[in-house]
Design goal:
The chain has three helices and no strands. By secondary structure, the chain is mainly α. The longest helix is centred in the N-terminal third of the chain and has 12 residues.
């Protein structure tokens, strides 16, 4: 799996380029592209396995 933060400075990543093409073609709005970009840029907390989210997910699955 490729780390998204590994894009060299001055280079545009393929997903970012795809988002810009989607905006330019009218498939999505700039606001939608911003939401998608921020969603994929966010990283889980380093202690995610011990977080409340995982405990809630495990308890709701049983």
């Amino acid at each position: 799996m490729t780390d998204r933060d590994q894009t060299p400075p001055g280079k545009t990543s393929v997903p970012s380029l795809h988002l810009e093409e989607s905006v330019l073609s009218g498939r999505i709005t700039q606001a939608e592209a911003d939401v998608i970009r921020s969603f994929f840029a966010s990283k889980p907390a380093p202690n995610w396995p011990a977080s409340d989210l995982q405990r809630r997910m495990q308890s709701s699955g049983g």
